[in-house]
Amino acid sequence: MGIKSEDKGTPGHNKYGYDDLVTSEDEKMGLSRCGKFLKYSMFLFNAVILIAGCGLLGFGVYTRTSENRLTQLSSILGSYYYSALSMSLIVSGGVVIIISFLGCCGAIKEVKCMLGTFFIFLFLMLLSMLIGGIVIYVYRENIGDAILNELSHSLNSTFGVAGKKEVTDAWNIMQTFFECCGVLGGVNSTTSWAYYREYTVWFKNQTDDMKEYVPESCCRNVFGLNRTKCVGGPGYENIIPAILPPVGSHQENDLLFTDGCYTAVEGFLTDNVRILAGVASGISVLMVMGMTFAICLCRRIKDEFLFD
Questions:
Q1: Do residues 250 and 167 both lie within one domain?
Q2: DSSP class of 66
Q3: Band of the pLDDT at 247, cuts 50, 70, 90?
Q4: Where are the transmembrane segments (predicted)?
């Protein structure tokens, strides 16, 4: 009674009988190409994100430890808000570095555990961004009121006061950059350009007979007579800022910024909302791409115990 010899030449068959574990050469090559594409695409993707994370961390440390124009602005908004912003940058940068490192190593070393951790961290980060955006939207009025209170307090009691140069410089920078004057409102508001005259210690402390109603930073083209006209000097008593609101069109001053800075910044953000939305959407898409790469690569990596 003879025993039939095993046909070793039959494709898709091996001596252990695990036919379903062996694929044709064409299938192997296809999987190899796809796997390598996912592997190196994910590595490059995370390498770029790693560099961005280092930049974000470095910028956060810079804002936290160095004297710069941003630190000057903290004297307006309050050190609490500025510290929270700088710490958020540092923490975000550190988290991005850790996540991208996991992605790089998991991809190049083909380690499922690292890729899984990368996916979870990325998902949690995306979820945190979504929750943070919702919280900011829900409490936007409270946040706005808190910022307005800080702006009003700093301008009212510390602008132009001896020993508070950083506050004065910060207001001058903001008013020049955003072309604004005062806190809130437009040309007929008592809390925009008229705020200086109505409420500030800076105006009350002026001892000259001809007081300046607004600082130079509220003016465009401050040269010679232009400056005199803008700050309300002699010969310009019938236009703002020498008169208080409400004002007619013939009493307006083309050299004076008339929008409050909160209003100007709010308008700036509104004008650029599409850009901001595009950036947020782009970041979200990149995060989803990263998670997709991780899932696909995990599925392509073969379990070692099957092929040892």
A1: yes
A2: S
A3: confident
A4: 37-60, 80-103, 115-139, 275-298
**pLDDT bucket at 2, cuts 50 / 70 / 90:** very low
DSSP string, 90-103: HHHHHHHHHHHHHH
Among residues 9, 6, 5, 16, the alpha carbon closest in space to that of 308 is found at 16
**Residue 180: CB partners within 8 Å, gap ≥ 6?**
174, 192, 218, 257, 259, 260, 261, 263, 264, 265
Tokens of 196: 């200086």
Residue 68: its pLDDT value, please? 62
Number of domain units in the chain = 2
Stated pTM of the model: 0.70
Q: Is residue 15 one of the residues assigned to a domain?
A: no
Mean pLDDT of 141-145: 89
Based on the fold, state whether residues 156 and 84 are members of the same structural domain: no
Q: Provide the residue range defining the domain that includes 229.
A: 143-265
Which segment of 70-74, 91-95, 116-120, 184-188 scores lowest on mean pLDDT?
A: 70-74
* Residue 225: inside a domain: yes
Same domain, 152 and 127: no
**Residue 11 to residues 5, 222, 266, 308: CA-CA distances in angstroms?**
16, 87, 70, 21
In a domain, 8, yes or no: no
Model pLDDT, residue 27:
41
Judge if 252 and 279 occupy the same domain. no
